[in-house]
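Page 42, continued from yesterday. The earlier attempt failed because a stray header line got pasted into the input along with the sequence. Redoing it now with the clean sequence only.
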Amino acid sequence: MEFAETDPSPVRKWLTAARPWALPASTMPVIFGTSLAVVIDGARLNVLLFGGAFLAMVVLHSAANMLSDVFDFKHGLDTRVTPVSGAIVRGWLSERQVARAAVFLFAVGIVLGLVLAWRTSCILLAVGGVGVLIGAVYTLLKAHSLGDAAVFLDFGILGALGAWIVQTGRGSWLPVVWTIPMAMLVSGILHANNWRDIATDSERRVRTFAGLLGDRGSLRYYAFLLFGSQFLVVLFAVLPLIHFGLPRLPWTCLVTLAALPEALTLWGRARKRHRPARPMDFVILDGATAKYNLHFGLLYTAGLWIAYVLG
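This time it went through. C-alpha cells are written below.
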C-alpha cells in the first residue's frame, strides 16, 4: 500500500519529519505534572512557565524523532513507507537536512531549559540534562534493548517531574510515582512499534526489548503495560486507606477506568496479530496505543481537576 505524496509542501515535509502525532505521549506528562503541582501541592499556576515547559518538551521530542529517523534510515531499518513513517524514507528530505534540523531543535530545547531553570530552580538542570542526554542517545539505547526504559523516563517520569519543578521550584517523589501509569503507556507505544518490526530489526542486528522478549513474551508485556497502568491508578487511590500516612490519589482519578474498554479492544487486536480482522490492525497498533495513551492521560488529568473543583 502506498502512502507517499508526490509533491508535498515544505510544511508537510517537516511536520512528517517531526511526527507530531507522537507528541501527546510526551506532553501529557507535562500537563499532568503541572496539574499535580496546582491541585495537590497548592502551587499557583504560572501559565508562562507552563507554556515554556510544554514548548521545550515539544521541541526536544521532535528533535529525538528526527534523530531516530536518521539512524533508522541509515541502518536500513526504515525501508518502506507506512502511514506514520518519516520524511526521509518517503524521499522528501535528505538525511543531512533532518540531522541538521535535529541538532538545531536540541539546541533550542536546551536554551529553553536553561531559561526555565534560571527562572525556577537549578534542580531543573539535572532533570533536563538527563532528559536531553537520553533523547540524544535514544537510538543507541533502542538498539540495545533499552528503548522502552528510555521513553519511560524521558517522555513520562522526567516530563512530569520537570513540570512540577517549574511550578513549585522544588523536587518531589510524588509526580515520579503517580506518573508511572502514563509512562507505562508511553513504553507501550514504542513496544507496539518494535513488536511489529522484530523481524526487520533482527535482520539488521538491532536488538529491541520486543526482540529480546520474542513474540509471545511481547504479548504478555503489552498486556502488563495496558492493564498494569489501570491497576496502579486504583492502587494509588486505595492503598492509603489501608496503609495510613501515604498520600492518596484523588478518587476522582478512577475515571481512567472509563478507558478500559478501549484497552480491551487493543488487547484483542494484539492477540489476533497473526490473523487480524483488518489488514492494518497490528501494523498501526502503535498509533492506536498512542491514541489510548492520550485518552488515558486526559482522563487521569481530568480526575485531578474534578477533585480540585469539588474541593
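Notes: Residues 143 and 205 are 8 Å apart (CA to CA).
Reminder to self: strip header lines before submitting.
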